[in-house]
Amino acid sequence: MKISDILVEKTPHLSFEVFPPKTDAAYEGVLKATEAIAELKPSYMSVTYGAGGGTSKIASHIKDKYNVPSLAHLTCVSSTKEEVHQVIDQLKAAGIENILALRGDIPQESEFPLPNHYQYAYELIEDGQFPLPGQYSHACELIEDIKKMGDFCIGAACYPEGHVESEHKKDDIAHLKQKVDCGVDFLTTQMFFDNNILYNFLYRAREKGVTVPVIPGIMPVTNANQVKRILSMSGTNLPERFKAIVDRFGDNPKAMQQAGIAYATDQIIDLFANGINHVHVYSMNKPEVAAAIQANLSEILNK
Ligand code: FAD
Known about the structure:
By secondary structure, the protein is of the alpha/beta class. About 45% of the residues lie in helices and about 15% in strands.
């Protein structure tokens, strides 16, 4: 089933995310977690794309064994166009109907000219040193190729607080509009911890003509280490209310998990109450977290 068909439904829905294993040894554990999340019957499940591979296999399993629609992420910046085309063909052969088309982060350790920080990535692009011939520079080029290669429902990423490489939010929104015009059916947001940031972003995006459905992405933070990673990766704003929770409960794993789930639940209720019907939860291979959030919303989701 295409995600665009799910998004027309006017009742509250949740989707969940898993990431593939980084090593073969970890495969069974990831599969077990994936299956436990699929049993919750979310409206769809997304599978991230990383260096270890395995996205197509897990996305097919979710769809074929659990009849849960799956969304395969695909990044393009670390591969040649030829390699990416092969992956698109594999996804098509596996019957995957939904792809989240992403540029990916410009690699820091590869044959590419090496940026040590996002600002250098920006400079390399500006200087014309990136991309190398036969490679992609932005997600919009990947979206155009996916569109040519099959009848996929195509999603893309958006950033309520602006992408880290963008000096100005208005440029980021202009690039987003270009990307959507390349053939995007829906957008999923980067995580955010203050819903007002999302509402403000939606206003600015709509004003600039981005009219496709936007699915807010909510990250339940269940341990204090995640917070450090989030801050280093995405520059996400952490509200005082959230920081107080981490300060008070960060060194008590069970309390932190409970508080993180409650905070995410609260954000989701507010989003539903403000007319959003679909929320994506970054459940990170943690069935207990996905299940707890779903249970907290049982009457709202009517499951
Ligand atoms: P783009 O849309 O190409 O944008 C990247 C930067 O370039 C932005 O600053 C944008 O403003 C600018 N830009 C875009 N188009 C143009 C243009 N035409 N001209 C000039 N500048 C332009 N990473 C993974 O490795 N695996 C995953 O599975 C994964 N899943 C993700 C899921 C979501 C929902 C999100 C929000 C992110 C995900 N990421 C993932 C991270 C993502 O790959 C990085 O954030 C990456 O740096 C940007 O990818 P993008 O597709 O948004 O890039």
